[in-house]
Amino acid sequence: MGFDPKLIDELLKDGHSVEAIAGENGLLKQLTKAILERALSAELTTHLGYEKHEVAGRGSGNSRNGVSRKRLKGDFGTLDIEVPRDRLSSFEPQLLPKGQVRWHGFDDKILSLYARGMTTREIQGHLEEMYQVEVSPALISNVTEAVMDEVRAWQSRPLDEVYAIVYLDALVVKMRVDGRVENRAVYVAIGVTLGGQKEVLGLWTSANEGAKFWLQVLTELNNRGVKDIFIACVDGLKGFPAAIETVFPKTIVQLCIVHMVRASLNYVNWRERQLVVVDLKTIYRAATEDEAAFQLEQFALKWDRKYPTIAALWRRNWLGIVPLFQFPAEVRRIIYTTNAIESLNMSLRKAIKTRGAFPSEDAAIKVMYLALRNLSAKWKYIQGWRNALNRFVVLWEARFPQHHEAINK
Q1: What is the pLDDT of residues 104-162, one digit of tens each?
Q2: 58-68 confidence digits (pLDDT tens)
Q3: pTM of the model
Q4: Do residues 162 and 399 make contact, with C-beta atoms less than 8 angstroms apart?
Q5: d(CA 359, CA 361)
Q6: 61 — alpha (psi -120 to 50), left (phi > 0) or beta?
Q7: What are the sequence ranges of the domains in the chain?
Q8: Which of 50, 259, 302, 348, by CA, is between 20 and 30 Å from 394?
Q9: 71: left (phi > 0), else alpha (psi -120 to 50), else beta?
C-alpha cells in the first residue's frame, strides 16, 4: 500500500523530532489509535447494514449505542481505544475481539523472551523498559502456560513412517522435583527424513537413563507412526542398543564420533589437545575398519604412556564405532559430525543457562520447546543429502516406503 507524499508532509508539518513522531503521545501512536477506531467503526457499519445517521437504520431493530473504552497493550506501549457498541450487544469486533487487551504479536514477544531463558520478572521489566507497558507476572505466566497445550500436541503428532537417521542426545537441566532441586536429563531426538529435512521428534525427561527408559521412548516413536530407522546415532547412551533392537531390529546403531573425541579430550591437558585430535582423526577417517584398527594401535603406541585411558575407551566402544566404515565419505560426514544436534544443543544451553533451576519439569520443557521452534524454523536441507540417499537406496531399497517421492525424483 502506498501513501501520498503530500499527506505525509501534512501530518509532519507540526514537528519532525523523534518524540513528535514516535513518543508517548506522538504521531504514530495517534495514527494507530485513529486507524483502529476507524476500522472498528467500519466493522460496526457492516454488522448493522447501514451508515451512521442513514435513514435505513430507522426501525431496523438495532442501532449504535456509544462506545466502551479498552486499554490495549502492544509494541506501541499502552493505547486507549474507543470500541463502538450496538444496542443489542450482538456486535463482535474481529479486529479487536472481546476480551483481547494485547495486540496481535504481543504474546509472541513474551514467548520470544521466555524462549531466551528470561524469567517472568525479567520479561516484565524488559517490556516496561522497552515499550512502557506494565504487564503483570500473572499475565506472562498465563501466556507461557498456554504453550503447554501446543507442546502436548507437538509431542503426540504423527511422524513419518521411515527416518534415514535419528540422532539422540541429552542435556542436564536443573529443575525442582518434589520440593528439591535435581539434575535431570532432557533427551532430544532429531530425525532426518528421506527428503533430507531435519525434524525434532520429541523431548523427554528422566532421572535415570537405561534400557527401560529408551524402550519407552522408542515405543512412543513407533506408536506415532515410525516403522523403521536406518541409522541411529547416539552418544553411548546406556541401554540404547538393546532397546532399539527390540523396537527397530534392522537399525544400525552408530556411536557418535564427536562425543568419543570429546570424551577422550577430558583426559588431555590443554597444550596437547590439538595434537591428540589430529591423531584421533586418523582412526575415524580411515578408509576401512582394518586401517582404523591399525591407526588405533599406532595411537596407543604414541599416547598410552601418558594417556592410557583414551585407547582403552576406543577399544571398549569399538563395536559401536565400526558401523561407520561400511559407508562412503559423504555418508560418514552426515553420521559422525552430528552438527544438527550439536548446534541445537548449543542454542538450548543458551536458553537454560540463565536459570539457576526451573520451578518444574513443565517450565523446562516449555523453554526448550520454544527455543527448538525458533531454531528449527531456520533449518535447511542437509548438504550432500542426494549422494547419501542414493547409497541408502542401494543398501535398503526394500525398506523404503513404496513409491516414496525421494526415490522417484
Answers
A1: 566 666 677 776 667 777 777 776 665 556 667 776 777 777 778 888 899 999 999 99
A2: 777 888 888 88
A3: 0.69
A4: yes
A5: 7
A6: left
A7: 5-147, 159-399
A8: 259
A9: beta
